[in-house]
Amino acid sequence: MQLDFFPSRSLTLYLAKMFFVRILAMLTVLVIVLMALDLLSRTGDILAAPGNGQGELLTYIGLRAPQLIARFLPYSVLLATLITLVTLNQNSEVVAMKAAGLSAHQVLAPLLLTAALVSAANFAFNERVVTRATATLKAWENNDYGPVPEDSGIRTNVYLTDGADILTATTLTGTGDDTLMEDVTWYSRDPQGMLSEQLRAERATYAAPGWKLENVERFDISAANTSTSDTVVVGKGLTTAQIELESVDPEGQNFFELWRSIEAYEAVGRRTTELRAKWWHKISGPLSAFLMPLLGAVAAFGLARSGQLFVRAIIGMALGFAYFVVDNAALAMGSFGGYPPFLAAWAPFFLFLLIGETVLIRTEE
């Protein structure tokens, strides 16, 4: 195999431009279709909030679209690979390139370079846009699609423990002594571990020590009666530092923020398996787009008139979608400790890289 992967500048630009245009086309189609389907299920909930209208629907689209773009960009690269290579094969352009002395790797090199640039762009897009949109959208959803919180530091569905007792909150804003929780529930347990009382409050603020619940409704489980109080202090062993550790959302933090959260967890002896797997996947996930030209390369070679072109395209699509299935399964295994975090994030990538290279070399090189 020749070591010069880009022997012709004109051919490289021609293939890269063709491939990039098809990636954009497929991504646009996928995002529009999926966004329309998503709106069908979400529009009723959004418009049910008082004062919401068309502007809020556009806001939802603006927050949801970045998630769809980041998630389905690798799928778009796979479909664009198959369309590009099938077109080149049908027009005998692959035959012409191989007759000119180009190897299979040289034919694919412009596509791999384009896919690598798309992977880098996807990583940057995830870091700068998707994480912020995800954090804001989650806060909005948990606020029943009320006014979108402008504070990007808002956390939702907070679950905290103080020994056997539990404190939950729908939203948490601020840091340190300025921390504020809303829609709060406190579950108190007796020495035997049985639930003894439940307190519901509109909000909770840091009381140093403990957390002051306001407008409290108390339910005594043993007596089966309900009472109300203006304020109650609970969770005196729950500090603001523990609050920040308990409220880590991997999808709402960028690469460096998540790493700092992992270090903070490890400093206090907390389990970090799930966070580490998702931290590694912030790199391996966008890089999956680089694999797609290699996995779909089987559609590029072989005579179009042999009747096997459609079968080759199906094989390429099957390889690509098999990667996504294995990747999701490995990440799930890594999240609950079945696989080491690094292996969970990277094993599918390297496995299918070897599979793609093996298929390409054995069939064409």
Written description of the protein model:
- The mean pLDDT is 84.
- The protein has nine helices and six strands, in the order H-H-H-H-E-E-E-E-E-E-H-H-H-H-H.
- The chain folds into two domains: 9-145 and 273-364, no CATH class; 155-247, lipopolysaccharide transport protein A fold (Sandwich).
- It is 59% helix and 16% strand.
- The longest helix has 40 residues, at 9-48.
- It is an alpha+beta fold and 365 residues long.
- Helix 1 runs parallel beside helix 4 and helix 4 runs antiparallel to helix 7 (273-295).
- Strands 1-2-3-4-5-6 form a six-stranded antiparallel beta sheet.
Concise overview:
The protein is α+β, with helices and mostly antiparallel strands and 365 residues long. It is built from nine helices and six strands.
List the keywords:
365 residues; lipopolysaccharide transport protein A fold; 2 domains; 6-stranded antiparallel sheet; 9 helices; LptG; transmembrane helix; transmembrane
